Amino acid sequence: MSEATRRLQLRLLETLPGIAERVLQGYQDHTDSPPPEAAGDKEFTARQSAGKAALAHLDALIKLLRWAEAGVSAELAAESGTSGSAGDRAETERLTHLLREARTALGKIEAAR
Questions:
Q1: Where does the record place the region Disordered (predicted)?
Q2: How far apart are CA 88 and CA 82, in angstroms?
Q3: b/e sequence 21-38, b meaning 16+ C-beta within 10 Å
Q4: Are 51 and 32 contacting, i.e. CB atoms less than 8 angstroms apart?
């Protein structure tokens, strides 16, 4: 894996769980709130389109998060047999923590689907 790809995957693991949680919460808020009483066809269509856009956004986040998780998991698996310095162990712990957060976020999203 190139260093640029690794940096991207790490950045995604650091940021996407929180973003995905906010998108999911926004979608849930959207679907939990009833449409306005006087909503006509135009408002109904706009509301449905907003919901579909939120789901498409969430789907893209899930795919990116899974890609990042798979890459970092593979990297950790490849390095698991090597003993390194304290800095290497700290980085491994950080990556493990990021993976745990990503998996937790994915689990919440899957449970809400």
A1: 26-46, 76-96
A2: 10
A3: eebbeebeeeeeeeeeee
A4: no
Distance of CA 10 to the CA centre of its chain: 12
Q: pTM of the prediction?
A: 0.78
Contacts of 27 (CB under 8 A, 6+ apart): 51, 54, 55, 58
> pLDDT truncated to tens, each residue of the chain (113 aa)?
789 999 999 999 999 999 999 999 999 999 898 877 777 888 888 888 999 999 999 999 999 999 999 999 988 888 776 656 777 788 888 888 889 888 888 888 888 77
| Helix residue ranges, H only, the chain | 3-32, 41-79, 86-112
